[in-house]
Design a protein that fits this description.
Nuclear Transport Factor 2, Chain: A, alpha+beta
Length: 229
């Protein structure tokens, strides 16, 4: 294993994000209790989905992340190296869990420093019909588009928090369930929902496309899992 990938894991306490591998997915899955692991048959391989523990709360950017933000080249190399690993790799799994956990914690504190590293410059983010009924555009482009999307989602809320909950690694795609809670500007009522994303990963291990779905069931169906159930 590359020393760069291992160094990145040490700095982040478990790693950071990456992905890319061709995957053939059978239409079936089995939920497993206990650790919340989901196993999906893929030819002769097994790809696992895992629950994501919440990251520690910080008012400002943690020291490890400050170090990485000062060395984006290190992050870029680490992302590319980890992206070449098999979707069944423990190292890759640890890296993705840490990356999503820390990434959404950064979004919650208004500090999404990682976006230029995690997303391709010409990335595209598509909102499914359910989200468009809430006022989102059909598509957002590039890093600036990512920020426009977040602003549009958060505009109706006094406070909004995201919690990544469950990740399924399909090699060239990541399927993520996200919890979202907040308080409405107008009503003052508390809101809690779970939605999903399918991330399409480039050959560099970065996000080239993200598809947003209003429900987890819709997300799984779009990814070809559960036979659309």
């Amino acid at each position: 294993m590359s020393g760069v990938a291992r160094l990145l894991l040490v700095v982040l306490s478990s790693g950071d994000l990456g992905a890319s591998r061709d995957a053939r997915i059978s239409r079936g899955a089995e939920a497993v209790t206990g650790l919340g692991i989901l196993e999906i048959a893929m030819g002769g391989d097994t790809i696992t989905g895992v629950d994501i523990p919440p990251a520690p709360e910080h008012a400002g950017r943690p020291a490890r992340e400050r170090m990485l933000a000062l060395a984006p080249w290190l992050m870029g190399i680490g992302v590319a190296v980890i992206g070449r690993l098999s979707a069944t790799s423990r190292l890759r799994r640890r890296a993705l869990i840490e990356a999503f956990s820390r990434g959404f914690a950064a979004i919650n504190r208004g500090d999404p420093w990682f976006i230029p590293i995690a997303y391709e410059p010409d990335c595209e983010i598509y909102a499914a019909a359910g989200f468009r009924t809430l006022g989102l555009a059909d598509c957002y482009h590039g890093h600036a588009g990512w920020r426009e999307l977040i602003d549009a989602v958060e505009e109706p809320f006094l406070e909004l928090r995201y919690t990544p909950e469950h990740l399924i690694d399909l090699g060239d795609r990541w399927v993520l369930r996200v919890g979202m809670s907040g308080t409405g500007h107008a009503s003052g009522a508390s809101t809690r929902m779970a939605w999903g994303s399918v991330y399409h990963v480039s050959s560099r291990g970065r996000i080239a496309r993200q598809d947003l779905y209003l429900t987890w069931e819709e997300t799984l169906a779009a990814a070809g899992l559960y036979g659309g159930r």
